[in-house]
From TrEMBL:
GO molecular function: carboxylic ester hydrolase activity
InterPro entries in alphabetical order: AB_hydrolase_Est10 (IPR053145), AB_hydrolase_fold (IPR029058), Hydrolase_4 (IPR022742)
Taxonomic source organism: Roseibium alexandrii (strain DSM 17067 / NCIMB 14079 / DFL-11)
Matches recorded under Gene3D superfamilies: alpha/beta hydrolase
Protein name, entry field: Lysophospholipase
Domain Serine aminopeptidase S33: 65-303
Pfam families in the cross-refs: Hydrolase_4 (PF12146)
Phylogenetic classification of the source organism: Bacteria, Pseudomonadati, Pseudomonadota, Alphaproteobacteria, Hyphomicrobiales
Length: 356
């Protein structure tokens, strides 16, 4: 009798745990479903190519609109699904979201690797101009939310002459070369390299960059000098050569629009302390709404670092990808998405009051 009671209790507890896990999975998966909201296909032309994107609407008249600006890599409008929980939270809070396939990705023409950072900014401005022609958005405020590499794009969009009401930057860096050194330092440290070995490798890379990415550098010379089995392809080489000296310091000094700069405390790609401090030093007195946050326990993309702290998505084991699907919005550091949404609404209200 006692044994049967133990079996029943064990089975009940196990069943309850499975039920709770199932409910969590269903809740997380729901954050990847945007079908309850209106979606409009929005096309625009940039540099003689057609760019394709989707505008998701929250069902609120003249809702504020966020345009998503991708980080590095061949990203589609949803970043392989990674944006979906974020978009869902914004829609629930009454914010519309527009995102596009990078040139040459998904339904967009062209090649994103042909672009400089100012080209990327021009593309984003063209997208904004197109959205402003759409019905139902005549009184909306518009802003950009960018990730990582967008740190060299958004400052161009924050100038007084630009029709932008607010900007949010997640995991941005001020200086491309310094960011690359931090990335390499973190990678080598994770592999167990000594401080001396890391310094030696950083010095070696700096010298090679000056030699093989300079104005007169040729791809053939770069290939000849490689000691790796996976060198950059030529279009990637040209992209890096075009952009590796990017530094947003001077552009930030003339920024006039409200900016929210956010970093994760456990960022493995961008130095959160140095960059947050640098943005603050440049921007703190340029607009009263400017804000700077380092989110405790967050990654480069503001996910929970206890589960998702990898330098590249392809480093994630399959169970981590499943965890992201199961958690949905809960994969992000607690409160972070609401923090962004509330700040955007504050800027939207300020913009509407100014217009009136």
């Amino acid at each position: 009798m006692q044994r049967r009671w133990v079996y029943w209790l064990t089975g009940s507890v196990f069943g309850a745990v499975l039920l709770l896990l199932g409910l969590q999975v269903l809740s997380g998966l729901d954050d990847f479903d945007l079908s309850a909201y209106e979606a409009r296909s929005v096309l625009f032309s940039h540099q003689d190519t057609q760019i394709s994107g989707t505008l998701h609407l929250p069902g609120v008249q003249d809702a504020p609109v966020i345009l998503l600006v991708h980080g590095d890599g061949p990203q589609d409008r949803y970043s392989g699904g990674g944006y979906l929980p974020l978009i869902k939270v914004f829609l629930e809070s009454g914010i519309a979201v527009y995102s596009w396939d990078k040139p040459g990705v998904g339904a967009s023409q062209g090649n994103w690797l042909d672009h400089s950072m100012s080209d990327r900014a021009d593309l984003a401005k063209t997208a904004l101009s197109q959205l402003k022609t759409l019905p139902g958005l005549s009184l909306s405020s518009f802003g950009f939310l960018g990730f990582s590499q967008a740190g060299w794009v958004l400052p161009h969009l924050a100038q007084e002459s630009e029709p932008t009401d607010f900007l949010v930057l997640i995991g941005g860096a001020v200086d491309w070369q310094r960011q690359g050194q931090y990335y390499t330092r973190q990678r080598l440290a994770a592999d167990g390299a000594s401080a001396e070995a890391i310094k030696s490798e950083l010095d070696r890379q700096a010298g090679r960059n000056e030699q093989y990415l300079g104005p007169e550098a040729a791809y053939a010379d770069y290939l000849t000098a490689q000691d790796t089995s996976s060198p950059m392809l030529e279009d990637r080489f040209n992209f890096v050569k075009r952009n590796w000296r990017s530094n947003s310091t001077e552009t930030l000094k003339t920024s006039e629009k409200p900016m929210f700069i956010i970093h994760g405390s456990d960022d493995l790609n961008v130095d959160p302390d140095y960059n947050s401090q640098t943005y603050r030093q440049i921007l703190e007195n340029q607009h009263p709404a400017n804000r700077f946050e380092i989110i405790d326990g967050a990654t480069h993309g503001l996910l929970r670092s206890d589960l998702f702290n990898y330098q590249r998505p392809d480093q994630m084991p399959f169970w981590v990808e499943w965890a992201f699907l199961a958690l949905g919005r809960e994969a992000f550091a607690p409160g972070t998405l609401d923090l962004i949404a509330n700040w955007v609404h504050d800027q939207s209200h300020s913009a509407s009051v100014t217009v009136r």
